[in-house]
Amino acid sequence: MTRLLDIPPSDWPSWFEKKGLEAFQGKIASRQVFQKGVYSWELMTDLPIAVRNRLQQESPLTIANLEKVHKADDGAVKVLLAFPDGARVEAVGMPGTKGRTLCVSSQVGCPVRCTFCASGLDGLERNLAPSEILEQVFSLRETQGDFGRLVVMGMGEPGHNLDAVLKALDTLIQPAGLGMSARRITLSTVAPKGTLPALAAWGRPINLALSLHSPEDNLRHELIPGVRLRGVRETLDEADHLFGRTGREYTVEYVLLNEVNDAVEQAKSLATLLAGRRLHINLIPYNSVSELQFKRPSRERQLAFAEVLRNANLSVTLRRSLGGEEEAACGQLRRRSAPSVRP
Ligand code: SAH
After folding, report:
1. Interval between CA 188 and ligand 1 midpoint (Å)
2. What pLDDT, on a 0 to 100 scale, did the predictor assign at position 334?
3. 181-201: per-residue pLDDT in tens?
């Protein structure tokens, strides 16, 4: 079954024609879905009832079931979606000064198994299709209204499902789609081999968040085991090259793990490595995952690490931690609900 949402909205008119329907009806449909937020054929009253009934049978627009909505004290709202094959994904809407930011997942589970992350604990269940990434956006939009920014920072490694992720982002950016500015989109990745050159070739000016976590190759490989990585320096050079293509400065993400990667000496190595590059550093104090042994560094250690970087004239944000919010870390809502069932 072709899912219409897997096809770029600019191609919807020809898809309708191929089905023996009218091209203009494809235009009506994309306007209804993306501009008006109508996500089911039944509600698309601008189309004749016979057309709606047929499309509902042959190609339903959305197939996910909204299984859970979790509201956190800080205003973040997380949704858990279940697909017909039992796969579950989570997506989050977070309040911000420039409207809500949506965070979507790129895979069900994650093959990368970062040693401090909940998403990879059970490995990869499967990739998500572009339509399934878009359904997360729709579900958040339906439950929480319009949004200003979108980050691909939920479950999964976008670099391992890049074609589908970029197709979904293209749909959000296309004028016939959501018409969103690429500058409001951020993709977070550990940068598996080939990912950054592929983003440079794609060329859209989205923002890159590069999950680095260590200035040293060996420790980085230990923390990010399940994937082929290039060296830290080569990876940063590729990110610089991407910046040359898109004009978007990038963010280096660094999860602070007590007595693993948070020593002042490591901050100094990081500062040397990052000096002269056009980037921002986002330090993320480790969020506790009950199954894992890591600890969040004390506030003093966090501040000392940030201070070394600031003294080297680097731009740094030290994320204030959202307390011990139970469901805060990636992949936890899904793990806490019943395991996925496959037919
Ligand atoms: N796979 C992508 C995107 C998903 S994770 C990536 O790694 O970038 C999004 C961010 O959350 C990453 O920077 C990741 O390192 C971080 N993260 C994962 N688990 C965390 C935890 N327990 N505490 C703090 N940050 C975490």
Report:
1. 8
2. 59
3. 999 999 999 999 999 999 999
Rounded Cα gap, residues 211 and 115, in angstroms: 13
pLDDT of residue 235: 98
Atom of ligand 1 nearest to the CA of 294: 22
**86 in the Ramachandran plot: left (φ > 0), alpha (ψ -120 to 50) or beta?**
left
Write out the two tokens for 42: 């039944």
Distance (Å, whole) CA 128 – CA 165:
8
* Minimum-distance ligand 1 atom for the alpha carbon of 157: 1
Give the relative orientation of helices 264-274 and 299-311 as an angle to the nearest 10 degrees.
30
Residue from 90, 125, 157, 238 carrying the catalytic annotation: 90
Q: Check if 165 has its Cβ closer than 6 Å to any atom of ligand 1.
A: no
Is residue 330 part of the annotated active site? The answer reads yes
Q: Is the C-beta atom of 211 inside 6 A of ligand 1?
A: yes
Right CATH for 4-58 from 2.40.440.10, 1.10.150.530, 3.40.50.1220, 1.25.40.10: 1.10.150.530
85-337 CATH: 3.20.20.70
Residue 141 clears pLDDT 90, i.e. is over it: yes
Q: What is residue 92's three-state secondary structure? A: strand
User: Dihedrals φ, ψ of 297, to 5°?
Assistant: -65, 155
Phi, then psi, of 88 in degrees rounded to 5:
-120, 135
Task: Tell which one of 92, 211, 325 to mutate to probe ligand 1, the residue whose CB is within 8 A of the most ligand atoms.
Answer: 211
Q: Is 90 a catalytic residue?
A: yes
Q: Which atom of ligand 1 is nearest to the CA of 154?
A: 4
State both tokens at 295: 């600890």
pLDDT at 332: 52
Report angle CA 54, 59, 61 to the nearest 5 degrees.
110
